[in-house]
């Protein structure tokens, strides 16, 4: 039997997306449900592949099949293609197996020519509309079917507007449009070397070929590469009759949702415009009416819409977003798809639909949009308030949430004013670890420099603090306590509202709406736990973080960064003393003074976590990060250590590095100064022993060695840790298990993971550093050039936010495989910034990791994403 | 048949190193040649494995086999183990399949006890010697056989010396040694819990087990891991009768070479000491005599030595380094091995032996020691001169050679004084690209900071300029033009001699010997070319470099760094203008001004290379490297560009980076500013067109894109290059092929090499950056902590000098395989610093690369190493 390449929508039901593409399958679905749609036919994806096989040509038999279906379509619609009465106009649209938004092309109003345009003008009684449609069709055809830039035709339009003083396209009258059409057709002839085709059949054949070719345009190739879509799938083409909502008072057009997409309430939510085309809504000529108007004017049409809306929702078992047109009192559905909704609506709709028996709990979890879910955790500004807000400046939406307060220009100032009951916003050029105290005190943080992964951004997200970074318009002067934006100066008495979810900063206070974390939210979270396989832990350095993490459902601590504990006033002094010590003895003495602080910190963590896993990382940053930066601090230190200023300066200089990220840090410190690792191991194990005794619950600490590159290196440090721990365990005469493992955050460690696994009991992937090294990309400097990589479609995501699955991911997969080859029960986790990112979590799930560890405020999203990742696999 | 585990030397010939170990096989070899050796037996490597299988025990049957051979040995020697007359004393030594120097243990004089020591004293008529031997034996036995630290016994010895006022061990008289032995034995009893064994058989059994166990000590395990030696090989044990050269006037001991190891001349070269043990030579009690003395005193012994020396040389077909002892007029050979020789001697001996028909040309090439070969390229200080030199300070031997001159403290000063005919040494805290002009002018370079891979070191090696870096004792003050070392101040009038091969700096001028590059050297080089498969290219940025490279036999240029061309006075100005330009137009204008300079540079390179391959890399370093550093330069630039100082400062600040090595550099510049790549591509292709026309030889440039991480990124830049080049080729209407490829220097590029290979026509591995990223190791900062990695045996080599085969090498191998999977004829090279290192070259040969590219002065070594790598494979 000869293969069939073209199907009417009415005969295509059940043939599937692979053959029909997503759009074609949807239209066939509606047709089979008996819903009125503008009729048409689908040319299959197989025809697309045939088109390429035939050397980018539509073969004769394919053409005759299309022609046959076109004749059938004329019969169904009662219209004639190119007819002088009631002419059939069609749209020609691509439709691939999966949605590739904006990647391929569409041509509308095909079938218009010098004759049919007049008929259209008469039938719609709207000459301007008809000629504007014709003008647009010529432009689309030239651009898409013939592949010429639209620049010059757009220029002609602008010229007319300039000459005649029109500011909007819709102000141009029919007469001018007719002249423009003449000029368009002239340009077409000169540049393309032939007349603009008047025969609709010629138009159609060109358009179909163009849509097939658009499968292989550069944008589409890049998009497919990034989304793992096979080049071999091809696109289908849908040829659909046009309907017009501007044929009179019993015509119109509208969009609607089957539930309220803002609140999730179960009610028809739609807008309608009498005697209008969809484009009129977009152009903003007239304000659409609420759907209630339609109910009054054409109650039977309204009822028909409501019934069909319910039918489609029940059929697709999801809230629908529909486009419809009424032509001469007949309701056509142009499109239906799952509707976008706010985070709050998403949660409510999912839960309601479970209660209505429409979907399962598993489906409810898989329906939630992870990309907006975290908004539910923070108070938000009311949309009314935002509408009336006065924008002060904008930056990167670095950490979501809303914060209101007066400007404070240093950490100390923020802390002092907060202590006196004032609400403040910390404003800094950029932040450093010493600003943390001020960030804790502030309602929100603003910086003039730095991107989404700057210090301020990372730390703020870690503490769930609202932050906007990189407000490049703002000049901040700490001395004079001023922030200058576009010549206006703001000071400590100015009140601002910071929207961390959008990056906008407003003058004055904007109304707040509190966060929702109970009810439906809690139901979704508890279902997520049922369906996920990955454990979700928190990155937490203090009991405060740990408590927050447990509130959000953390199952343990996956990363405790001990260095954050060294910035307290007394501690930093001992730390600096340790770093600047000239002899082993001096260093040991300084470490001895740090030990009790560390032990108490760890103990309160163990007590807080009540026997859950706690993974503590040994000192990681280069030592110079702890040294004083200001002349004042240097003087203070010189006095305290009885050293000359010159000596302090010299020693600070010795610690400077050209590329500190690849410098003297992590395990290198333990190899050079084993006594530091020893002190930290002792503090951890003593804390665990005391906590175990006090709670009567067994504690099993995990000790993590950072920045390892070699198995012998790890072995050496593990021996130091083990001998220290065992000594204290024996001395205390208690039973205690503990585990020593390593971070995999340098490519060499990933490449040699099988060797390192001989001694390492667990791996934790540190994707921040692993991404830096694997991509040769300094996180602090990358914002200067990564933008060019996004613009050029070389990279799609910030690789520090969403793991670079293609490159870095290959190394992670390799290390996981090598590690488990040596140690089949190797415990694998990830604790970098990407551990809170849904796309990355999906990948980690596929890699077979055991847990992810992210900042407390990202835990709900992580739990949800982990559940969705698992459900996706279960469904297959 | 029962397996045999023990062989007399006289029955072991031909059993091979696998079974006997290297030492055992050598002794069996000498025995079979009829050369008199102290007899003994070898316990095989299989016995070692059996020892481990039996739970670290010597099984009964093995013991009885050893006992049987010991009895046979008594018969052969006429001596009795533990006998009261003529006692048999033995050494017990390890001997693995390949030499593992210093890794395992040796025990001498085993068989000594309270009885035999007296016999030894009587027979040697040297009581002091006998008791000292006994003392040493107890110490070695305690340390090696029993595994106790020698610290306390050494302490007792020091105590005696301190109390009695002896400064050297050999001053201690027999009486004191006897007392010391009593104390040693007491310590042994208290600490080990048993009497020191008096029964020689017990001593032997313990000693054999200890040598077997030493196979698994930590040092040995690390050494094996680093040298890819299998843990399963095991070590053999050699038990050999002791002979004594101190039995009177017809006894003696000596060492000798079969040729002169200093000059290579064919003559006996030996030293002899009458009535002495080998240790006496080491202890420096007496000055040994030239071998001529032996000739006079015992002519028949001399003749015997000369004959055996010739016999051994002929047998091993290499110059031999021999140890011998004369006991009562009988000449014993204790050891023979290939002798170490100077670079000059090595070349002469190899050539002479070819002429003598002793070895083939291939063998001659494989015999040359690559690690010293490059000394032949530079003038050297005479050894007499060095012996009398006054050391000023020392640093790293960063670039070999010898330089004499007066101190100059800035590049400008060095240049000015050189122009006036003075010879100067450039002295800097550390160097930066702007110092290059001064480095060119200077005879040698000294820096106070930086290691073997600092800027000064790399650039100096590149130009074949002598350099000593990291003289940490030296304080250099450019302002006052002084260098202070240990309180002494040196200035512009002080003359120094810099030895770049040893890192020592001398006061005053030391006599120079010119380099040898003709005669035997040239013969070896031409043979090397016959046997190598790898092409050897040069890293060269200027015609001067290129001429030097061709003199040394370069087959092309593998890396021309265009950035080095931007530092000329006019160029740097246009470069800075380009970098600081505010608009695309301004930048294009500045680039237009740079174009002619670049074109001329490239053209003269093409002309110099006469049609050989020239590979030019597009701009690589971050732009801030070109910006002015001093306030003066900034003011100059501000004036020239009509910009305010503040504006210049602000723009310079914008370019600063936290981790510039992973910053805005390499291909990132081309993605952000395609016009830079365009200008460079145009300059290259115009230069090639002109050069081709002038020479009438076809030119086929290679254009290399640095720092690539992605296939789409490379593709985009390749398109820019290709369209620019094709435009110029078409405009000139000439025929020209050119190739566009990429560096593989970021792990992600290596991981995705198969994708990048779709468009890249060649890969060049940049091991400097690849090592930095793969190991997370900043080259500029690593010297602060890598020393701890060497100390702890975690790393063996500086990974920037010798490629880290285990880690980075894994990535190189992977990328080579992936690249050739996509493009089977993919041209592969390496242009990083390691491309001139013999160990690395051996690895690159094994990886199947096509060429290596190193600095001109390393080319002879690289050619030799490439030949040796190939010969090694051919031999297998």
Task: Kindly describe this structure.
Two copies of one chain form a homodimer. Chain A is of the alpha/beta class and 876 residues long. Chain A is 47% helix and 17% strand. Chain A has 35 helices and 33 strands. Chain A has an eight-stranded mixed sheet. In chain A, strands 26-27-28-29-30-31-32-33 form an eight-stranded parallel barrel, surrounded by five helices. In chain A, β32 (827-830), α34 (838-847) and β33 (851-854) form a beta-alpha-beta unit. The longest helix of chain A has 26 residues, at 584-609. The mean pLDDT of chain A is 91. Chains A and B meet through α26, α28, α29, α31 and α32 of A and α26, α28, α29, α31 and α32 of B.
Q: What structural class is derived from the secondary structure elements of chain A? A: alpha/beta
Oligomeric status = homodimer
Question: The biggest beta sheet of chain A, please?
Answer: 8 strands, mixed
The count of helical stretches of chain A stands at 35
What is the 3D shape of chain A? elongated
What would you report as the Rg of chain A, rounded to the nearest angstrom?
Answer: 33 Å
Mean pLDDT of chain A: 91
Q: Which residues of chain A sit in consecutive blocks of at least 5 with pLDDT less than 50?
A: none
Number of separate strands of chain A: 33
- The proportion of strand residues of chain A reads 15-25%
Distance between the termini of chain A: 33 Å
Order of strands across the widest beta sheet of chain A?
14-24-23-16-17-18-19-15
Biggest chain-to-chain interface with counts: A-B, 50 and 50 residues
Query: What is the helix fraction of residues of chain A, given as a range?
Result: 40-55%
């Amino acid at each position: 039997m000869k293969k069939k390449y073209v199907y009417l929508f009415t005969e295509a039901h059940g043939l599937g997306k692979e053959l029909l593409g997503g759009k074609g399958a949807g239209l066939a679905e509606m047709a089979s449900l008996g819903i009125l749609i503008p009729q048409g036919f689908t040319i299959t994806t197989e025809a697309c592949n045939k088109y390429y096989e035939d050397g980018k040509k539509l073969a004769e038999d394919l053409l005759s099949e299309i022609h046959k279906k076109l004749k059938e379509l004329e019969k169904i619609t009662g219209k004639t293609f190119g007819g002088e009465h009631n002419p059939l106009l069609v749209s020609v649209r691509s439709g691939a197996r999966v949605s590739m938004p904006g990647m391929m092309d569409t041509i509308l109003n095909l079938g218009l020519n010098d004759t049919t345009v007049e008929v259209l003008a008469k039938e719609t009684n709207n000459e301007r509309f008809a000629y504007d449609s014709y003008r647009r069709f010529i432009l689309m055809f030239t651009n898409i079917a013939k592949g010429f830039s639209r620049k010059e035709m757009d220029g002609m339009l602008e010229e007319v507007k300039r000459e005649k003083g029109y500011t909007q396209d819709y102000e141009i009258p029919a007469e001018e449009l007719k002249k423009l059409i003449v000029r368009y057709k002239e340009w077409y002839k000169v540049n393309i070397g032939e007349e603009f085709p008047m025969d609709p059949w010629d138009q159609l054949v060109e358009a179909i070929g163009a849509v097939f070719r658009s499968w292989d345009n550069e944008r589409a190739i890049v998009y497919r590469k990034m989304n793992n879509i096979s080049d071999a799938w091809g696109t289908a083409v849908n040829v659909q009759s046009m309907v017009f909502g501007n044929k009179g008072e019993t015509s119109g057009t509208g969009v609607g949702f089957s539930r309220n997409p803002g609140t999730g309430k179960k009610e028809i939510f739609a807008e309608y415009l009498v005697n209008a085309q969809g484009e009129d809504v977009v152009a903003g000529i007239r304000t659409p009416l609420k759907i209630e108007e339609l109910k009054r004017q054409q109650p039977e049409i309204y009822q028909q819409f409501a019934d069909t809306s319910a039918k489609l929702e029940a059929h697709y078992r999801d809230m629908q977003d529909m486009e419809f047109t009424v032509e001469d009192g007949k309701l056509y559905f142009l499109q239906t798809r799952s509707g976008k909704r706010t985070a709050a609506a998403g949660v409510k709709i999912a839960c309601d639909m479970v209660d209505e028996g429409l979907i399962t709990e598993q489906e409810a979890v898989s329906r939630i949009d992870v990309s907006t879910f975290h908004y539910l955790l923070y108070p938000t500004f009311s949309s009314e308030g935002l509408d009336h807000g006065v924008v002060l400046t904008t930056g990167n939406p670095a950490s979501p949430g809303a914060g209101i307060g007066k400007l404070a220009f240093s950490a100390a100032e923020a802390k002092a004013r907060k202590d006196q009951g004032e609400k403040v916003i910390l404003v800094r050029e950029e932040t450093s670890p010493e600003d943390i105290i001020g960030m804790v005190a502030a309602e929100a943080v603003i910086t003039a420099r730095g991107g989404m992964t700057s210090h301020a951004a990372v730390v703020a997200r870690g503490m769930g603090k609202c932050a906007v970074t990189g407000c490049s318009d703002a000049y901040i002067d700490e001395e004079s306590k001023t922030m200058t934006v576009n010549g206006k100066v703001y000071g400590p008495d100015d009140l601002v509202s910071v929207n961390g979810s959008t990056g906008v900063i407003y003058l004055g206070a904007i109304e707040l709406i509190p966060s929702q974390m109970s009810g439906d939210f809690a139901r979704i979270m508890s279902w997520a736990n049922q369906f996920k396989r990955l454990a979700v832990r928190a990155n937490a350095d203090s009991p405060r973080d740990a408590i927050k993490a447990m509130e959000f459902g953390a199952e343990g601590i996956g990363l405790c960064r001990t260095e954050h504990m060294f910035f307290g006033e007394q501690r930093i002094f001992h730390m600096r003393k340790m770093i600047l010590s000239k002899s082993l003895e001096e260093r040991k003495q300084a470490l001895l003074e740090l030990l009790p602080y560390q032990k108490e910190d760890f103990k309160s963590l163990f007590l807080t976590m009540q026997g859950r896993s706690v993974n503590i990382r040994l000192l990681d940053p280069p030592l110079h990060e702890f040294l004083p930066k200001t002349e004042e601090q240097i003087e203070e230190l010189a006095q305290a250590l009885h050293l000359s200023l010159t000596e302090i300066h010299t020693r600070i200089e010795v610690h400077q590095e050209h590329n500190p990220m690849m410098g003297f840090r992590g395990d290198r410190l333990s190899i050079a100064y084993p006594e530091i690792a020893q002190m930290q191991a002792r503090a951890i194990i003593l804390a665990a022993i005391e906590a175990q005794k006090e709670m009567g619950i067994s504690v099993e600490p995990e000790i993590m060695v950072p920045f390892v590159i070699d198995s012998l290196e790890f072995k050496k440090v593990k021996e130091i840790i083990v001998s220290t721990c065992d000594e204290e365990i024996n001395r205390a005469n208690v039973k205690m298990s503990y585990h020593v493992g390593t971070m995999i955050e340098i490519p060499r460690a990933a490449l040699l993971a099988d060797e390192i696994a001989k001694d390492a009991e667990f791996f934790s992937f540190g994707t921040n550093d692993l991404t830096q090294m694997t991509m040769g990309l300094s996180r602090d400097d990358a914002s200067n050039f990564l933008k060019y990589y996004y613009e050029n479609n070389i990279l799609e995501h910030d690789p520090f936010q969403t793991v670079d699955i293609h490159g870095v991911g290959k190394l992670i997969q390799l290390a996981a495989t090598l590690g488990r080859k040596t140690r089949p029960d190797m415990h694998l986790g990830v604790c970098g910034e990407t551990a809170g990112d849904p796309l990355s979590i999906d990948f980690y799930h596929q890699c077979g990791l055991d847990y992810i560890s992210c900042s407390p405020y990202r835990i709900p999203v992580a739990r949800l994403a982990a559940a969705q990742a698992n459900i996706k696999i279960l469904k297959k």
